[in-house]
Amino acid sequence: GAGVVTILACPGKGNCSLGVGDSEGLAKMIEERFRERPTPNKFKMAISGCPNGCVRHQIHEIGVVGVRYPKVNENCDGCGRCAEVCKVEAIDIRGGTSYTNYNVCIGCGKCIKNCPNDAREVKEEGYLVYVGGKAGREIVEGIKMKLMSVDEIINFIDKVLVVYSKYAEKPQRERLAAVMKRVGYGKFLEEVMELMKK
């Protein structure tokens, strides 16, 4: 029906060896705050504890993914273990030191966990948020937003729901992705960000 539906979440940190974010805890918090809130059409959310995306966070109205980006410290001896475990090939070893290409790195944190010299530590961690995704007959990947804290995520979801309700013209027929496309992605998100500041 037209409303926020049950949140989908993977086991996440503490339950999955790959988890870097507390997906279950965040899902419960979001569920308590937005459960059955009326919306112009069904509104789906998914929380992934890591970038593997087992719950397909990219194709929900709101998708959240836990990330942990690395940085190298002086302990690095260029052994290459980090490059071996990096599945997206974001790490190069040059001159006895490892370097991360942040344009490629997905923030899974495997290189941090697998470094035998404790030479990789957390540079930045938190949650990336996707907005405006959709599954079904037409697949739409959501727009990836910046890293957000839990409080920012709650505020962001609230304001997305406000702007979505404002612009939806066809109750129970127009999903968030269609509204964002019609209104303009930039305009829609700019309005959300402005409301977040208030």
Which term fits the overall shape?
Answer: elongated
- Unreliable spans are none
- Note the main sheet: 5 strands, mixed
Helix content: 25-40%
Number of helices, counting only DSSP H or I runs of 4 residues or more: 6
Order of helices and strands, N to C?
EHEEHEEHEEHHH
Using only C-alpha atoms, the radius of gyration works out to 19 Å
Counted beta strands:
7
What strand line-up does the widest sheet have?
Answer: 1-2-3-6-7
Q: Strand pairing plus helix content: what structural class? A: alpha/beta
Instruction: State the distance separating the first and last CA atoms.
Output: 30 Å
Beta-strand percent range: 15-25%
| Mean model confidence by pLDDT | 94
Structural overview:
This protein is α/β, with parallel strands linked by helices. It contains six helices and seven strands. Helix content is 31%, strand content 22%. The strands form two sheets. Strands 1-2-3-6-7 form a five-stranded mixed β-sheet. Strands 4-5 form a two-stranded antiparallel ribbon. The radius of gyration is 19 Å and the shape is elongated. The relative contact order is 0.17. The mean pLDDT is 94.
